[in-house]
UniProtKB/TrEMBL annotation:
Protein name: 1727_t:CDS:1
Superkingdom classification of source: Eukaryota
InterPro entries reported for this sequence: Kinase-like_dom_sf, MLKL-like_MCAfunc, Prot_kinase_dom, Ser-Thr/Tyr_kinase_cat_dom, Ser/Thr_Kinases-Pseudokinases
Residue ranges of every copy of the Protein kinase domain listed in the record: 214-473
Length: 692
């Protein structure tokens, strides 16, 4: 029989017999005390002064609602309310630390946005559970707050900020837009949307004859006025900014393009704001969007199609590595340059991996490429698996020269995909495989558009499979008369097939230990690229491609060092349960941070050096935390160990707590013993300052 006693500040304690379990229920006065501390912290915060008043107003409304219903609140719901409020307090304590303000402002703005979103959601859930209707659904505060925090000009997008995303020569941008550069910059002009006024054309010193009204189209959602001037080498996109959202979109594009500065993406040369008008100078789009190019060119050889697929898959793999998505990936967002290379463009579609702000309604044009689960629940966050599904549809479009489901309207496609959720792959609606498609290509494509998101491959896997297919075409793709071989012939070819039957992990390890690095690398690569890859082999291949120590490169002919590809192998090894890969990847991040800091210190920029090092420390601990949350004991130990070394008390405590949970709850004696061993090692270190 349970007995309940009313205690300090209105809290209640329940004693439950016969196990004598004590359940603590916070009182209303305690909730008020936490809210008061939160209000004080909001008043002292400096990160985003526009958003803070809305946060304070919301918290005071929560307090008033609890006060009005203090007599009817069920004690069972107060612990969840207290937990949500404590999370608010904990966040704001970090939010107001003087030493953390610059770091939070410049580097972690998107994480802060997501954290604020989670805090509001958790507190709203706890209030609704207690029948306290301070719901965010009927007010605009959260939207207002998030809209303010998403203004990128408060982060690192200011041209006057020495940590700006793009180093821009303003004079060059002005000269380019005003057609003063040589090489006939504005030989032609294409106007999209509402044409510029004659006054504005005169102001830009652009001849009215250059605008071709035959190319006028409706605005594509990027703003009420957009003009693209195309020349032989560059394109100038002119945008009249009317709202803060318009302004932030251009800065976001500038930021993302600076992070994706490789030949796989449309190059962005600079951006300039002057008099409310934005000028963005980009690479000339050459032969235009891929969708239009496919319609007008029907005789593209398979070698070219596979090369395109590899480039686009590699571009998306880079995006995922840098925590960006392009949802949904459609052919309108791909350009074909003058050398027939495809590149990802339209950076305004990119977003952070955990961003959940985009609804299906915003993706009307991309429904044909949209994954089924997103049509069923538009609030689901975009993920890398959603990008992979879209890429599968793009692979089909490259083979067919048609958009997916071209015989159906957008509404019909949406309902078809929505009703297909839950079906098996064989029963789900998908475009038919085009006759003559190589079996290997079709196999990768079908894996990409699988129904269950978790069963779709990573983009790194897709790249490797397509590269194998490209090697097959290079070796056996065409007969002597120039005709393509049958797809069944290509199925038999494996460019990584072993030259002798003794390719085993034992042999590869022995070659490595004997310092026969060339032979060891080749054997590790064969084992890593198998249909069922080996975790240890992926780990070694990743190390060979990344490690800068001389012994790993000695004896290997040619340059095998490729850190980006090496990281993809390490990620595969991590997914297969290799804890050494997790530790190695985190150490590489720390090594990179140390080198960047050393270079910045040499230039006398100590502030930037400390900021960069702090960011990389956070990423390093994040790698260990991800592995620990998946149940990896080594990562739990490293989370605590590196947390102590880097001065992160919370990481140290979390790592120890996870190991203790394994000791208490694990059924496997070996796991318990290993966790105890790791915990003993941690206790032997001098980490006592974290326990005070």
């Amino acid at each position: 029989m349970a007995k309940r006693f009313r205690g300090f500040l209105g809290a209640s304690i329940e004693l439950i017999s016969p196990v004598a379990k004590v359940v603590y229920f916070p009182g209303v006065a305690e909730l008020f005390a936490v809210i008061e501390r939160i209000v004080v912290l909001i008043d002292t915060a400096r990160y985003n002064r526009e958003a803070l008043p809305y946060m304070k107003e919301y918290m005071l409304e929560v307090k008033q609602t609890i006060r009005d219903n203090s007599e009817t609140i069920n004690d069972e719901y107060t612990p969840s309310l207290m937990k949500a409020l404590k999370n608010w307090e904990k966040f704001l304590v970090q939010y107001t630390k003087p030493k953390m303000r610059k770091l939070l402002t410049i580097l972690n703005a998107d994480k802060i946005d997501r954290k604020i979103r989670d805090l509001f959601s958790d507190l709203d859930t706890a209030l609704n559970a207690a029948n306290l209707r301070v719901t965010l659904e009927n007010n605009k505060r959260l939207k207002q707050i998030l809209g303010i925090t998403e203004r990128v000009d408060e982060r690192m997008m200011d041209l006057d900020n020495k940590l700006n995303a793009m180093q821009i020569d303003v004079t060059v941008v002005k000269d380019a837009v005003t057609a003063k550069v040589k090489d006939s910059f504005l030989t032609t002009a294409i106007c999209h949307g509402v044409p510029l006024s004659q006054e504005k054309i005169a102001e830009l010193t652009i001849s009215p004859e250059l605008i071709n009204p035959a190319h006028d189209t409706q605005p594509n959602g990027d703003g009420p006025t957009k003009v693209i001037y195309c020349g032989g080498l560059y394109a100038a996109k002119v945008k009249i900014a009317t709202t803060n959202d318009d302004i932030s979109k251009y800065w976001v594009q500038a930021f993302i393009s600076s992070k994706l500065n490789t030949d796989l993406f449309m190059k962005n040369y600079g951006i300039l704001l002057e008099g409310g008008i934005y000028y963005m100078i980009t690479e000339w789009p050459g032969k235009g969007p891929l969708s239009e190019y496919l319609k007008t060119n029907r005789n593209i050889p398979w070698t070219q199609k596979i090369k395109w697929a590899i480039r686009l898959a590699s571009a998306l793999a880079v995006c995922h590595t840098k925590s960006f998505l392009f949802p949904p990936e459609i052919s309108h967002n791909v350009i074909v340059d003058k050398n027939d290379n495809v590149k990802l463009a339209n950076y305004h579609r990119a977003r952070g991996i955990k961003d959940i702000t985009t609804s299906v309604a915003e993706e009307t044009d991309g429904v044909r490429w949209l994954c089924p689960e997103k049509t069923r629940d538009g609030t689901l966050p975009y993920s890398t698996s959603a990008d992979v599904y879209s890429f599968g549809m793009l692979m089909w479009e490259i083979t067919s020269h048609e958009i997916p489901f071209s015989d159906k309207t957008i509404g019909e496609v949406f309902m078809m995909l929505k009703t297909s959720v839950g079906l098996k792959d064989a029963d789900a609606p998908r475009p038919p495989i085009v006759p003559g498609t190589p079996e290997k290509y079709a196999s990768v494509m079908q894996k990409c558009w699988r129904q269950v998101a978790g069963s779709r491959p990573t983009m790194q896997y897709v790249v490797r499979k397509l590269e194998k297919l490209e090697k097959a075409f290079d070796a056996y793709g065409y007969t002597s008369d120039g005709t393509m071989m049958s797809s069944s012939s290509l199925t038999e070819y494996d460019p990584y097939a072993p030259t002798h039957p003794n390719v085993t992990m034992q042999t590869a390890r022995r070659l490595h230990n004997q310092r026969h690095y060339r032979e060891a690398f080749e054997q590790f690569k064969i084992l890593a690229d198998k249909a069922e890859p080996d975790a240890e082999a992926n780990f070694y291949v990743g190390r060979y491609l990344i490690d800068s120590r001389i012994e790993f490169n000695r004896g290997i002919e040619g340059n095998v060092k490729d850190p980006n590809v090496g990281m993809s192998y390490l990620e595969v090894a991590e997914d297969l349960g290799c804890s050494e890969a997790t530790q190695y990847r985190a150490q590489e991040k720390m090594a990179a941070a140390t080198e960047i800091r050393r270079q910045l210190l040499n230039t006398g920029d100590e502030t930037d050096a400390d900021i960069i090092l702090s960011r990389m420390k956070t990423e390093c601990l994040g790698v260990f935390r991800d592995g620990a949350e998946k149940g990896n004991l080594r990562c739990m130990k490293d989370l605590a160990d590196y947390g102590a070394k880097l001065g992160d008390r919370q990481s140290y405590i979390d790592g120890r707590r996870m190991l203790n949970n394994v000791i208490v709850n694990a059924r496997n004696p070996a796991e318990r013993a290993k966790a105890q061993e790791y915990l003993m090692k941690l206790q032997q270190h001098n980490n006592s300052q974290f326990l005070n």
